[in-house]
Amino acid sequence: MTLIEEVKAIMQRSASDEYLNVMVPLLEDYVKAECNNTFRKNGKTVYPGGVKIFIAKACEHNLTVSGVSSKRLGTVSYSYDLDFPDSLRRLLNPYRRVRFHAF
Question: Structural domain boundaries of the chain?
Fold first, then answer.
């Protein structure tokens, strides 16, 4: 099973294949940067279950209106909060690697 197929199976909402084909690679890059981890083992990228769940839930989050931070009724206007909630970001905590900065 590919990562996109696994994400689609985990998601509780249906999403188009086109959406997942765009979002999953973007979220893979986000996870690698956020965790400072390439998830490479024996030359292959292998994501643990928590990372797969994060990617699926992040796709769901972007599909819902839960990301709406404000609305206006007159001449309809919406503002979106593009940050993921802390409860979602905590899924990545076990996979983070420490970064050392040289001064």
Answer: 3-95
Calculate mean pLDDT across residues 6-15: 87
Q: Does residue 65 carry a pLDDT above 80?
A: no
Is it the case that residue 15 has pLDDT exceeding 80?
yes
For residues 61-75, give the mean pLDDT.
Answer: 67
Question: How many other CB atoms are there within 10 angstroms of residue 7's CB atom?
Answer: 24
* DSSP string for residues in the chain: --HHHHHHHH-SS---HHHHHHHHHHHHHHHHHHHT---EETTEE---HHHHHHHHHHHHHHHSGGGEEEEETTTTEEEE--SPPHHHHGGGGGG--------
pTM higher than 0.85, yes or no? no
The CATH class of 3-95 is mainly alpha
